[in-house]
């Protein structure tokens, strides 16, 4: 082989027999002299550049896919310029399919394909060629990469990969409305020939739909698609390659087109008349029957509402939202005797009307609902049904007729009716009613001023069936009679100043009247006859049911007369006219220059309505001083009382300390005169007249013994040691008990002589309890 090329590639010469070749051209390289690669000992010389004209350079081969021959398919030939045909060069290939799909003749460099190739599976193979020395197996030149392309033939039909296809279109859509798009794929090479050029057509269903030849968009072919007639269509769409030319391959798919609903159908009642029956006693709101209108549409296009065109006075209709039924019910009570059959016209109307289809006709329908009313036994009916209003004069006599209530049996038999008054509404039995005629009469005298209206309830029952009962309210108005005289509205009092002028208006009076004449009140005022000679005041009738009092003279003196009583006569307009006399009290008072009242004889002093700020402050200061003084007095009293109690407690403690005498002990509950403890030095004498001589003239130890004896014998004085506590030490103690319970007495059997042996501390106590020595006492 020739020395290596500076381009790093060696020349492949391919001989193509059955195949055509491409990508060929001239390849120039600079050959340099150097060491040979075969280890043949060629010597190295100076490098030289030489322009060499190369042969055809083949780096790409083509092989037809889907070859069906029995022999390996010739692909091409590789060759190097260094091969002089002596057979000392070996050709090898490596890469994709080398040795399996593609084989090479080592001697000639011919490449063959041993397997059937499919371009749709693999479009090309990349391999590398190598020329080696047959003996040493050393590479003569670097590897050269080449490509074997699989040449496409039209062997793949178009396929619809996204199926199955489901589309939808609204009914009554215009021609040419787009429904959906279908797409077919062809695995052939789209860059080579027309193998992958696909066109579309409709095989089945072309009467209703068409498909765009190039885009695959399916469109409507007619404008009268009706969902109610046929709600879906199955189309077969074909895709053909080779642009539809003869010999092209094709594939097909099924397309389902659903026709969606529009509101193009009105509601329809299956019947033009429905018949129902209902009792005349059925309550208001009772359903009479159900009717329904059908609609060929679906979904919300079937929503409808119902209304009554005739008969709405007694019946009403509602729509059941679940079932879309019309529910006819009673609106007002029915009466068999008045009308036995009712024809109710019910109309059904679509809720959602499509304006595009209004020209198709009216989207409403009507039917007749015939309602037959059946008869039942009904209670009596009052006339008027809403109740009666009657009037009676308040001065009517007992037994007078107030009014008549009427009721009848509404049934065909028209049974007699009996009346009564519900006594819970007339507990005082003011009214009576005739059970046969229904005439209401007075049972007691009336008084409009006590009760102007009486509301009673009258009951009516069938004479032979008291369960058939009804009630009616009767309102009785008591008409007024002028039987109450007018009276002054309030016990009037007036005040005038001493310097009042003649003709001065000092007061305005009004009256009240418990009566209510239909023409209204009209009162007349005048002074009572006993005041006709009055020279001080005059009365002026204002003519509006009020009167004014004026002064007739000037110069009133409250010291001469401070109160005037003015009797006033009031008369109403009747009939008959009634009157009453009221007295107006007028007080004479002292006034300031502006006419403000300062004082009257009835009160000692009337303080001015407004006090100056200085007067208010002085008043508050006085009140505060009084409060402080009261608090100081209370504090001093409490302090003195505390001192007195402290002195008493100190005296009590001094008494206890001063006298170490035992009293009756803690069990002694008799009371002492505590005043005996107040004096520290003066002891009371024994209360008994038999106590003997004065103990103050006796020796000290005898005085002590006598004191103990007197304390034990006198149960009316408290013990001196009432604040001391004595405890019993027990039977084993040699001291035994020191309690004052067993004290020295004429009957005591205790021996206290041992106290003298206890030492100086008990000598005083031993003197109190040891028995006296008469000899020592006499000496």
Automatic annotation (TrEMBL):
Pfam families documented for this protein: CADH_Y-type_LIR (PF01049), Cadherin (PF00028)
Mode of membrane association: Single-pass type I membrane protein
Keyword match Transit peptide: no
Subcellular location(s) of the protein: Cell membrane
First and last residue of the signal peptide: 1-29
Regions crossing the membrane: 615-636
Record key words, sorted: Calcium, Cell adhesion, Cell membrane, Glycoprotein, Membrane, Metal-binding, Repeat, Signal, Transmembrane, Transmembrane helix
Domain Cadherin: 80-160, 161-269, 270-382, 384-488, 488-605
Location (main, coarse): membrane
Superkingdom of source: Eukaryota
Statement: the UniProt record of this protein carries the keyword Repeat: yes
GO biological process: adherens junction organization; calcium-dependent cell-cell adhesion via plasma membrane cell adhesion molecules; cell migration; cell morphogenesis; cell-cell adhesion mediated by cadherin; cell-cell junction assembly; homophilic cell adhesion via plasma membrane adhesion molecules; morphogenesis of an epithelium
One cellular component (GO) term of this entry: catenin complex
Gene Ontology MF, one: cadherin binding
Biological role: Cadherins are calcium-dependent cell adhesion proteins. They preferentially interact with themselves in a homophilic manner in connecting cells; cadherins may thus contribute to the sorting of heterogeneous cell types. PB-cadherins may have a role in the morphological organization of pituitary gland and brain tissues.
Protein name in the entry: Cadherin-22
Gene assigned in the entry: CDH22
């Amino acid at each position: 082989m020739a020395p290596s090329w500076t381009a790093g590639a060696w020349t492949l010469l391919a001989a193509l027999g059955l195949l055509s070749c491409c990508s060929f051209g001239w390849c120039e390289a600079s050959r340099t002299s150097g060491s040979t690669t075969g280890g043949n000992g060629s010597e190295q010389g100076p490098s030289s550049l030489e322009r060499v004209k190369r042969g055809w350079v083949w780096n790409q081969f083509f092989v037809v896919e889907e070859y069906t021959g029995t022999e390996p398919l010739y692909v091409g030939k590789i060759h190097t310029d260094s091969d002089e045909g002596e057979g000392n060069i070996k050709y090898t290939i490596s890469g994709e399919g080398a040795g399996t799909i593609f084989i090479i003749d080592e001697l000639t460099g011919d490449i063959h394909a041993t397997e059937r190739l499919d371009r749709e599976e693999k479009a090309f193979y990349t391999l590398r060629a190598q020329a080696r020395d047959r003996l040493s197996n050393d590479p003569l030149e670097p590897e050269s990469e080449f490509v074997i392309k699989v040449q496409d033939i039209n062997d793949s039909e178009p396929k619809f990969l996204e199926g199955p296809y489901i589309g939808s279109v609204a009914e009554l859509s215009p021609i040419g409305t787009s429904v959906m798009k279908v797409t077919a794929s062809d695995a052939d090479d789209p860059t080579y020939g027309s193998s992958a050029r696909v066109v579309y057509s409709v095989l089945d269903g072309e009467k209703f739909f068409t498909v765009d030849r190039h885009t695959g968009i399916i469109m409507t072919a007619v404008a009268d698609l009706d969902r109610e007639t046929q709600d879906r269509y199955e189309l077969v769409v074909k895709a053909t390659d080779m642009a539809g030319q003869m010999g092209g391959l094709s594939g097909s798919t099924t397309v389902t087109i659903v026709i969606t609903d529009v509101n193009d159908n009105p509601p329809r009642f299956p019947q033009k008349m429905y018949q129902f029956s209902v009792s005349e006693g059925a309550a208001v709101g009772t359903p009479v029957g159900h009717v329904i209108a059908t609609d060929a549409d679906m979904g919300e296009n079937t929503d409808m509402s119902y209304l009554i065109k005739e008969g709405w006075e007694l019946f009403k209709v509602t729509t059941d939202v679940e079932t879309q039924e019309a529910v006819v019910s009673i609106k007002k009570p029915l009466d068999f005797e008045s009308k036995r059959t009712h024809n109710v016209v019910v109309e059904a109307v679509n809720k959602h009307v499509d304006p595009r289809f209004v020209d198709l006709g009216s989207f409403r329908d009507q039917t007749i609902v015939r309602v037959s009313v059946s008869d039942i036994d009904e209670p009596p009916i009052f006339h008027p049904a809403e109740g009666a209003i009657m009037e009676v004069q308040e001065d009517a006599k007992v037994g007078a007729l107030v009014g008549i209530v009427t009721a009848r049996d509404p049934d065909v038999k028209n049974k007699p009716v009996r009346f009564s008054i519900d006594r819970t509404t007339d507990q005082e039995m003011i009214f009576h009613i005739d059970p046969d005629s229904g005439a209401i009469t007075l049972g007691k005298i009336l008084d409009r001023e006590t009760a102007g209206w009486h509301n009673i309830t009258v009951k009516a029952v069938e004479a032979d069936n008291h369960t058939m009962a009804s009630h009616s309210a009767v309102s009785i108005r008591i008409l007024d009679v002028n039987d109450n005289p007018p009276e002054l509205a309030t016990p009037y009092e007036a005040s005038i100043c001493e310097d009042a002028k003649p003709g001065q208006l000092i007061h305005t009076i009004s009256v009240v009247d418990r009566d209510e004449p239909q023409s209204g009140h009209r009162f007349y005022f005048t002074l009572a006859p006993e005041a006709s000679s009055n020279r001080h005041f005059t009365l002026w009738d204002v003519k509006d049911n009020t009167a004014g009092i004026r002064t007739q003279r000037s110069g009133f003196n409250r010291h001469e007369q401070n109160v005037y009583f003015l009797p006033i006569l009031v008369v109403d307009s009747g009939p008959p006219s009634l009157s009453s006399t009221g007295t107006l009290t007028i007080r004479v008072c002292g006034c300031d220059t502006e006419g403000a009242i300062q004082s009257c004889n009835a009160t000692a002093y009337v303080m001015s309505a407004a006090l100056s700020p200085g007067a208010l402050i002085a008043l508050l200061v006085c009140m505060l001083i009084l409060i402080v003084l009261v608090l100081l007095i209370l504090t001093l009293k409490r302090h003195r009382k505390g001192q007195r109690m402290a002195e008493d407690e100190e005296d009590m403690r001094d008494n206890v300390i001063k006298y170490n005498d035992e009293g009756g002990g803690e069990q002694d509950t008799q009371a002492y005169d505590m005043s005996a403890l107040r004096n520290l030095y003066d002891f009371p004498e024994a209360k008994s007249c038999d106590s003997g001589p004065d103990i103050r003239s006796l020796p000290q130890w005898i005085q002590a013994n006598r004191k103990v004896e007197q304390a034990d014998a006198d149960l009316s004085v408290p013990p001196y040691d009432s604040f001391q506590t004595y405890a019993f030490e027990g039977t084993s103690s040699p001291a035994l008990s020191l309690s004052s319970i067993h004290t020295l007495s004429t009957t005591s059997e205790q021996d206290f002589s041992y106290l003298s042996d206890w030492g100086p501390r008990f000598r005083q106590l031993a003197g109190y309890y040891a028995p006296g020595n008469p000899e020592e006492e006499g000496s």
